[in-house]
């Protein structure tokens, strides 16, 4: 779908994936006016294709658009584009257990213009890609590296938006984590380098021995994850006390060492819920619980996956059936 000032959104087409041509002066290539979303089409137990809370992705997309001075896309147009593509690509659906179709809606500034101001032409596209099951039987625990030298988002910056630039800035710290033998990087806040924020592509939860849970609050420097939001609701329904509260690296280490903190998990669309077993940084490392997947992590993961796959009731109408 295209956008120009005079017409707004127009020219919606469904077609085969092919290269697109851009003027070398297209604003996106110079000033990074680009945003995206990530969601999955699932097959329910009865074979129906379904999306999980796509209207939340549509809302977040428009919040990202606002931060990047881009035009809003009506939520129903976003959901319809994702729906139409999922159905058109149903033959690409991977026939492996737990497989899905990963959907990538994105928007960028296509106007050829070299001045620094919001562009007056945009393109919105959705592409799809088959995705296998991240983890067939429960997720293995990952090891994460605390970045001291890099932060992901500063107050007032673009941290809460899903824009390409945030991910470009995460590449070096993520590579550093891998080089040091870890799976993921965890970012601290920019101001004090003290508070835990999130991983490169997942939000974090901390589980304590008294059954309470904490997740860092959304203060503009963390991506408002849709998995995070869903787990907050599910955990509260399970009777857990969940607080959106700042949690420091120091406290994390002390609580893990004393046994007060029993589990930590990361969550996001790609892997749903992933246990964190080990945390390392320039000041040493510590293990969480037994270093393997914890009980609450597995329970919440199973509960969410069951709703997504249509094997458990869906009291909040999170699942949108496509056919
Ligand atoms: N944080 C970041 C930085 C991410 O890229 C993602 C993935 N979109 C998440 C958190 C998790 O968000 P969601 O649950 O909506 O996939």
UniProtKB/TrEMBL annotation:
Give the originating organism.
Answer: Croceibacterium atlanticum
User: What is the protein's given name?
Assistant: Branched-chain-amino-acid aminotransferase
InterPro entries in the cross-refs: Aminotrans_IV, Aminotrans_IV_CS, Aminotransferase-like, B_amino_transII, BCAT-like_C, BCAT-like_N, BCAT_family
Q: Which GO terms describe its molecular function?
A: L-isoleucine-2-oxoglutarate transaminase activity; L-leucine-2-oxoglutarate transaminase activity; L-valine-2-oxoglutarate transaminase activity
Q: Which domain of life is it from?
A: Bacteria
Q: What does this protein do?
A: Acts on leucine, isoleucine and valine.
Q: Which residues form a coiled coil?
A: none
Q: What gene name does this entry carry?
A: ilvE
- Enzyme Commission no: 2.6.1.42
The reaction(s) catalysed by this protein are:
L-isoleucine + 2-oxoglutarate = (S)-3-methyl-2-oxopentanoate + L-glutamate; L-valine + 2-oxoglutarate = 3-methyl-2-oxobutanoate + L-glutamate; L-leucine + 2-oxoglutarate = 4-methyl-2-oxopentanoate + L-glutamate
Q: Does the keyword Protease apply?
A: no
**Which cofactors does the annotated protein need, by name?**
pyridoxal 5'-phosphate
Q: Which family does it belong to?
A: Belongs to the class-IV pyridoxal-phosphate-dependent aminotransferase family.
UniProt GO BP: isoleucine biosynthetic process; L-leucine biosynthetic process; L-valine biosynthetic process
What is the enzyme's class at the highest EC level?
transferase
């Amino acid at each position: 779908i295209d956008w120009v000032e005079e017409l707004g959104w127009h020219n919606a087409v469904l077609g085969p994936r092919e290269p697109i041509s851009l003027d070398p002066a297209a604003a996106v290539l110079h000033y990074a006016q680009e945003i995206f979303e990530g969601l999955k089409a699932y097959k329910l137990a009865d074979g129906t294709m379904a999306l999980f809370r796509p209207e939340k992705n549509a809302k977040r997309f428009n919040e990202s658009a606002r931060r990047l001075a881009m035009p809003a896309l009506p939520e129903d147009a976003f959901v319809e584009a994702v729906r139409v593509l999922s159905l058109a690509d149903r033959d690409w659906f991977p026939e492996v257990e737990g497989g899905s179709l990963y959907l990538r809606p994105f928007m960028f500034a296509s106007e050829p213009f070299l001045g620094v101001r919001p562009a007056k032409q945009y393109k919105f596209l959705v592409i799809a890609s088959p995705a296998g099951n991240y983890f067939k039987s429960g997720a293995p625990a990952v090891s994460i590296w605390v970045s001291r030298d890099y932060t992901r988002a500063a107050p007032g910056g673009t941290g809460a938006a899903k824009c390409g630039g945030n991910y470009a800035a995460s590449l070096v710290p993520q590579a550093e984590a891998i080089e040091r033998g870890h799976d993921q990087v965890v970012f601290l806040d920019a101001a004090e380098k003290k508070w835990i924020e999130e991983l490169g592509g997942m939000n974090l939860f901390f589980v304590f021995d008294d059954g309470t849970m904490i997740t860092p609050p959304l203060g503009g420097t963390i991506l408002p994850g849709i998995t995070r939001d869903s787990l907050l609701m599910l955990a509260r329904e399970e009777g857990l006390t969940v607080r959106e509260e700042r949690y420091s690296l120091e406290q994390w280490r002390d609580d893990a060492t004393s046994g007060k903190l029993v589990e930590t998990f990361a969550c996001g669309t790609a892997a749903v819920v992933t246990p964190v077993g080990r945390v390392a940084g320039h000041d040493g490392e510590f293990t969480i619980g037994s270093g393997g997947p914890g009980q609450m992590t597995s329970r919440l993961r199973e509960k969410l996956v069951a709703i997504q796959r249509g094997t458990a009731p869906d009291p909040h109408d999170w699942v949108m059936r496509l056919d």
